[in-house]
Design goal:
81% helix, 2 helices, 68 residues, mainly alpha
């Protein structure tokens, strides 16, 4: 992987982390709402989980392999 590709991946990762954090805050506010939209809440939680999986995958690509 080239240095440019790694930098692009890092930028993408930072954007995903920000969106994940924003979703966390949005979900917390929605849960506190007396009449929470359960469908919207479920959709946001699925998106958050999807982002978490993507973040984990990208972090794995950025971590160099250590051979024993």
């Amino acid at each position: 992987m080239t240095e440019e590709e790694m930098e692009a991946l890092k930028l993408q990762l930072a954007g995903m982390r920000l969106e994940h954090r924003n979703l966390d805050e949005t979900i917390a506010r929605l849960v506190e709402t007396p009449i929470a939209d359960e469908l919207e809440l479920r959709r946001l939680k699925k998106r958050k989980l999807y982002l978490k999986d993507l973040i984990f995958t990208l972090e794995g690509q950025l971590t160099p392999d250590i051979r024993a």
